[in-house]
Amino acid sequence: MRPVAFHLQLTDIPYWATQYPAEDLENDERAFAAGSRIRGGDYIRPNLEEIVAWKSERRMALIRDNPDSEIADALRLALRAREPRSALAVLTGLRGVGTPMASAILTALDQEQYTVIDFRALEALGVANAQADLEFYIRHYLPECKRLASEAGVSLRTLDRALWAWSKRKGV
Hints:
The chain is mainly α. The protein folds into two domains: 13-20 and 114-170, no CATH class; 23-109, no CATH class. It has ten helices and no strands. The longest helix has 19 residues, at 134-152.
């Protein structure tokens, strides 16, 4: 895989994070509450569906095709994974879960270690045409987001909100 040249398109991450819509903050809270319940051992479908609805309501029908036992196993294994690659891989084994959705699930489970990859964030990082697959997320996107958040003195979640808000305001 060749190197990726990220170019942050915005200058004031804390400002752009404040531009994240209030209704989306409420959706975040519901998803993170579901993530907290999963971390507490409640590996049930409604918790996963709350997170899926936050990321993409359109994927819900595909998620419903997964047996409850597979959902529980995938969530349990993702939480126990020592490596991000393992956590992502087990989640992408579920029907309807690609890397962007897996990143959202992991973000709901642990906002300090993971962040969401989607077209808005990629646009704000100047790589709108990037393939948002597992390898790209692990080798390039997640490390770059951690670096940017650290340099700006913000959390990964704050960075993600800023990237999303900037892209949304741009009109994409």
